[in-house]
Amino acid sequence: MRKFIIKRILLSIVIFFFVMLIIYTLMRCLPSSYIESIARQKSQQPGSKSYQEWLAQLNAMYGMDKGFLGGYLNWLGDFLRGRFGDSWYYTVPVIQRFHETVWLSFTMGAIAFLLELIIAIPLGIVAATKQYSKTDYIISVIALAGISLPTFFFASLLKLVFSVKLGWFDLFGLVGRNYEQLAPVGQFFDKAHHLVLPIVTLVVISIGSLMRYTRTNMLEVLNADYIRTARAKGLSERKVIYRHAFRNTLIPLVTIVGGSLPGLFSGALITETLYSIPGIGYTSYHAMVGGDIPFSMFYLAFLSILTLAGNLISDILYAVVDPRVRIA
């Protein structure tokens, strides 16, 4: 196991190097550029230098006068030393802006993910054990609706019903108008109230795929020979399903759990933007639109590391869930 982990970590380092090279190249090719915008603004001031002079000066200041490979190696060296620079768009250190926004997205993502597991897995098991029944059809329709619904459409529908028609929630924002006048407990519940619709949106649009995945794998396990043997021995249906079948259904589900690690920190870009929730997804969107390379590179590097770590965790958990799986 130790050799496997070391080998995977070394391979992940190589993958990370090339992934970030591709991302850096794409970032340098963005049509929007913070440096060009600032150079244009400064060149329009009375008695200022020309646009080209300002552009050359700012490119040299931010190290953008180097080629793609030279600039990437310079960024990689600073990243490995823990020097992440300042955000061009937000004019604060990158790590400070990241810390201010990531935990809100993590809270939303963690709550939505727990609700997704609590709802989707049991419903998937019920649908599999009652195959081709009315219950199975209802659960399948709900799952397919969740898979098919676009995020922007469902979020807009929720806002129309619960914000415009019923007036239960605000249309936008994380806090209400009287937030500053509330006690600490009131401020907590005010924020929680504003996060209800975003979390419901995240749960509904993601629950369908996990529900269908659980149902499909459960059906495959229920048709196995050892399940028929367990039933032939006289075991109760509950023991057959939850002690024998469900344990083996967990094996492919581990992949989803391990792969969900980056999603807890990546933020929900579309959902946060639609509800104007200042999480990391909303923040990174405006940074990319504004051509903020330092913040965007740090954010994408963070997600790349989490993705590689999630894949490694999934492989290790296979051996924990199923004793038959052994890593040579």
Q: Give me the secondary-structure category.
A: mainly alpha
In total, the number of domains comes to 2
SSE sequence, one letter per element: HHHHHHHHHHHHHHH
Q: Largest sheet, if any?
A: none
The CATH superfamily of the largest domain appears as MetI-like
CATH class of the largest domain: Mainly Alpha
Assembly type:
single chain
Tell me the fraction of residues in β-strands, as a range. under 5%
Describe the structure.
This protein has two domains: 34-83, no CATH class; 102-292, Orthogonal Bundle (MetI-like fold), CATH 1.10.3720. The protein is 76% helix and 0% strand. The chain is built from 15 helices and no strands. It has helices at residues 2-28, 34-43, 51-61, 68-80, 94-129, 134-148, 151-165, 184-194, 196-222, 225-232, 237-259, 261-266, 269-275, 280-289, 293-321. With 328 residues, it is an all-alpha fold. Helix 11 (237-259) runs antiparallel to helix 15 (293-321).
Task: Produce the secondary structure layout.
Layout: H1 2-28, H2 34-43, H3 51-61, H4 68-80, H5 94-129, H6 134-148, H7 151-165, H8 184-194, H9 196-222, H10 225-232, H11 237-259, H12 261-266, H13 269-275, H14 280-289, H15 293-321
Helix pairs in contact: 1-15, 2-3, 5-6, 5-9, 6-9, 7-9, 7-13, 9-11, 11-15, 13-14
